[in-house]
Design brief:
Helix content of chain B: 25-40%
CATH topology of chain B: TIM Barrel
Shape of chain A: elongated
Strand order of the largest sheet of chain B: 3-2-1-12-9-8-7-4
Structural class of chain B: alpha/beta
Distance between the termini of chain A: 73 Å
Distance between the termini of chain B: 25 Å
Order of helices and strands of chain B: EHEHEHEEEHEHEHHEEEHEH
Oligomer: heterodimer
Helix content of chain A: 40-55%
Strand content of chain B: 15-25%
Strand order of the largest sheet of chain A: 1-2
Largest interface: A-B, 29 and 53 residues
Number of helices of chain B: 9
Number of domains of chain A: 2
Strand content of chain A: under 5%
Structural class of chain A: mainly alpha
CATH superfamily of chain B: Divalent-metal-dependent TIM barrel enzymes
Number of helices of chain A: 11
Shape of chain B: globular
């Protein structure tokens, strides 16, 4: 007895299709997890905060973090439109290389925060160390698909082909095909989403990034409430790892409108695809509270 | 139960998200207290708390809404949640307040004092026993700060607490700042209060800071530095008994890590000094 999916009735085929889809997604998830687990997180060396920022979000993230830090130090000031940058009264001494680069850009007349950040190029000293230890795929931080992004792609193509054939047969036989069209569209959407997963990190870089996110969960928790209290290194590390908007809290909240993209925009979403692997986002909304002021 | 059966807690701090980083970086903390109502025992612990747990820092859930002294029956859902959280945290004990927070179906939003009467004592003892039957770990109850006292008291606060502990077998979470607040607002005699309490039942100690308002009332805000008078009370306590654990509560106007760290250092030094003096 042989199994022929085309012998199935319409509802049976839909169930078969959905089950196959779930199985492929599960297979991909398991394979990627296994692949990532054997990558290792590279040599045990101390990574500087801006290197971690570069790892997490490439050029844009480094530019945003440096700009936010300069605003925090009053080396730059932001106009009321939340986009125009100019030099402030803060001292430029002791600035790090990315901060000097942002300041130089503003000094040279580049005044739009968005254009400064989007056009930012990470200093070679930061990228070269990441490249040397195999954390990024190439020197210009260009996106490359790593092997794990291909897991499950062929079965998904086959499933989609099967669905399309069945769809054509169904239409020619005058059968209702609404649900099947829906499933095929979802499959197509997932296909392109999976195919589009590419970033500047190697497997080792992604593993290191996930480790850093996990190890810095306390930093993230505090940054989300009291970003203004962080030291320079903590601020750069937290903003670099979790995004600038995650640390613009407390007395820095005034900056958040400038760094938060408007709804529907993707200007601040340059972070790698690794963030989903972090364990830091789990749990409740951070608890806390306390019972001060009520006698307890 | 006496605190001899309880593992030593050491130096502690109330865990708040704002202090997570500082707490992670203090390697001398033996325990942190978490506000029970802010966590769900059915879910995994927050990553920073899990990391502390793995490091050997003990987590103590601290309830603020069980209303142990309320005339209404205990909310078993809250009790179950506290029990689940204690298990999730592998807590050595949990703590709650000796007060009521709701009546007639209404939540006060505050920790309200109990009338120091036999009737109120019977209620609170029954509720503590009910909680103990469900909780997987010992329960410590905390003395609260209040701005008023109910009339027709049949005993004083220290006698009430002592009876509640002896009749229920619960431990005591001694809040020295609440005692200080009651001294300022209600005239409580602090040395006499300490002398009347069964100090062998003190599971751990709270210290915190508050402020005095324009009307001269002292408020237990947990948002100010620990007053010198509270440090002095801690010294007196340490001279009387071996303290199992001491922690600072800080819920607002968070100071720099350096300032709060210095307060913790001062607490640790004081406890150490007393222990060395005993030896």
């Amino acid at each position: 007895m042989t199994f022929n999916p085309f012998d199935l009735t319409g509802p049976e085929f839909l169930k078969f299709y959905a089950l196959c889809f779930i199985a492929i997604a599960f297979y991909r998830w398991v394979r990627r997890k296994q692949w990532l687990a054997v990558q290792g997180s590279g040599p045990r060396i101390k990574w500087l905060p801006y290197e971690v920022a570069c790892l997490a979000g490439g050029h844009l993230r480094v530019g945003e973090v440096a700009t936010a830090e300069l605003l925090r130090k009053d080396v730059l000031v932001l106009a009321g439109d939340n986009d125009t940058l100019s030099l402030g009264k803060g001292s430029p001494t002791g600035l790090e290389e990315p901060e000097l680069a942002v300041r130089a850009a503003v000094e040279a007349g580049k005044s739009s925060l968005k254009s400064v950040c989007r056009g930012f190029v990470t200093p070679p000293s930061i990228v070269s160390r990441l490249l040397k230890h195999g954390m990024v795929a190439n020197a210009d931080l260009g996106k490359e698909s790593s092997p794990d992004t291909r897991f499950g792609m062929w079965p998904l193509r086959l499933l989609l082909g099967l669905g399309v054939i069945r769809l054509v047969l169904g239409i020619s036989a005058g059968r209702p095909v609404g649900f099947l069209i829906f499933l095929c569209v979802v499959t197509l959407f997932v296909f392109f989403a999976w195919r589009g997963v590419a970033n500047h990190l190697t497997g080792t870089g992604r593993r290191l990034l996930m480790d850093r996110m996990r190890l810095n969960s306390a930093l993230r928790t505090t940054a989300k409430r009291r970003g203004d209290s962080l030291s320079h290194n903590d601020f750069v590390l937290a903003a670099g790892l979790f995004g600038v908007s995650a640390v613009l809290t407390g007395e820095l909240a005034w900056m958040s409108a400038a760094f938060t993209p408007p709804p529907g925009s993707s200007s601040n979403s340059s972070g790698s695809s690794c963030s989903s692997g972090s364990s830091c986002s789990s749990g409740s909304s951070c608890g806390g509270g306390g019972c001060g002021g009520c006698g307890g | 139960m006496s605190t001899r059966e309880l593992a030593s807690l050491g130096l502690g701090l109330g865990w708040r998200p704002e202090l997570a980083l500082m707490i992670e970086r203090r390697d001398d903390l033996g325990f942190v207290e978490i506000i029970a109502e802010g966590f769900d025992g059915r879910r995994a612990l927050l990553a920073p708390l899990q990391a502390l747990r793995e490091r050997g820092v003990q987590l103590v859930p601290h309830g603020v809404s069980l209303s142990l002294g309320g005339a209404a029956s205990l909310d078993t859902q809250r009790l179950d949640q506290l029990a689940r959280l204690a298990e999730r945290c592998e807590a050595p004990l949990v703590s709650e307040h000796l007060c009521f927070t709701r009546a007639g179906g209404m939540e006060s939003g505050h920790l309200l004092p109990l009338p120091y009467t036999r009737e109120a004592l019977d209620i609170v003892v029954a509720h503590i026993r009910q909680a103990q039957a469900i909780l997987p770990v010992p329960l410590a109850v905390e003395n609260i700060a209040s701005l008023f006292e109910w009339p027709d008291a049949e005993m004083d606060e220290a006698q009430f607490i002592t009876s509640a502990l002896e009749e229920s077998g619960a431990l005591l979470l001694l809040d020295l700042e609440n005692l200080y607040a009651n001294h300022l607002n209600l005239g409580t005699d602090m040395p006499a209060f300490l002398a009347k309490l069964p100090l062998s039942r003190v599971a751990y100690v709270h210290v915190a800071g508050g402020f005095t308002d324009a009307d001269g009332l002292y408020h237990d805000s947990h948002a100010h530095d620990v007053p010198q008078a509270v440090f002095e009370l801690l010294r007196q306590l340490c001279e009387r008994t071996q303290v199992n654990g001491v922690m600072i509560e800080r819920d607002g106007r968070f100071p720099s890590d350096t300032i709060l760290g210095a307060e913790l250092d001062a607490v640790a030094a004081l406890v150490k000094e007393c222990r060395e003096h005993e030896l």
